[in-house]
Amino acid sequence: MQPLPGLDGRSTIVVVGIGADGWDGLAPASRAEVERAEVLVGSARQLALVPSAVAARRLPWPSPLSEALPGLVEEHADRAVVVLASGDPMLSGIGTTLIRLLGRERVRVLPAPSSVSLACARLGWAVEETEVVTLVGRPLELLHPHVQPGRRLLVLGSDADTPRQVAALLAARGYGRSVVTVLGRLGGPDEEVRSGTAATWSGPAPALVVTALECRADPGTTALPTTPGLPDSVYESDGQLTKAEVRAVTLARLTPLPGQQLWDVGAGSGSVGIEWMRAHPTCRAVAVEASAERAERIARNAARLGVPYLQVVPGRAPEALAQLPVPHAVFIGGGLTTPGLVEQCWAALPTGGRLVANAVTVESEAVLAGWFARVGGDMVRLGVQRAEPVGTFTGWKPAMPVTIWSVVKP
After folding, report:
1. Whole-prediction pTM value?
2. So what's the architecture of 13-113 in CATH?
3. Residues 181, 193: contact at Cβ < 8 Å?
């Protein structure tokens, strides 16, 4: 969402956080802002919490919000507008959206205690040791990377069905023993707290709900770390898969950093792009794959491993690379001998961008050798051998060696 042009000097929008305790729970400063408002904007439930003696015009949120919000702000730009929000408006809330739209100079936020703070207070959990996962308007699969033995999670959801969905995900992952605590209408007179396990959870939940999780793995469940080199077995594949040992080295050379963008060209099963995105929640990746069947498989792998926002682009490189977001790093896992492919990937990188390419054939290795001679970088060959039965004994079976070229664009 781009900031609105031409709004400098207009009145400041005040965003007031209001809890389940309603008007009586507002701080004096927040109450004063609501009382002086000419226009009040919020959900029907929030607007109903304000006494009728407050004479402001009341506007429920338009739908869809993202498309209608700029026009609403522009229409009332010269009036005293107060926006009502639940709890802390900067926690997956409208405060963040308005600041992105208008800039922080035009938005003032007066928060109430957040649902996270209230939930931790009820549970006796240290806030700084509790991980918050927001699923508000987002795919449930985003929870997967956070489900680890011993972790305490607070899940913010869109509706009353979130606890059931979360419990089902944990049980399917082998975390049925996890303790699920549902905290509804926190801070209000009808506050509700219920606990159970993921495997046995059932029943309705309040609309205003936080789902607390104490993750406990069932016996025999294998935890999946966020570090590179996940077991090959977690991927659905037709054999086009960068193997775990090579993948770990490849990701180390690509150097995933928060907020950065990867091109995974010739993505196969999508493993490199997926593990790039698992390194940090803000990492982004595009998987380019010529085979439509493999592209569909990549999307399934990404969702199952907790990165549903992986962008899958079916098409043949280099043609499919047009119009992609500028990358911070590029991985070429297939198609190295395609004319113009390496050239286009190299040209797309900004200064300081990283390019990593893997080769298993003599022809592909010759391409890497040429580029290595031209622009430098680092080139290594990895040979992996696995212990396998040889009759009644054990011997080493070598996999095909992989040549890895990595370079930083000067």
Report:
1. 0.89
2. 3-Layer(aba) Sandwich (3.40)
3. yes
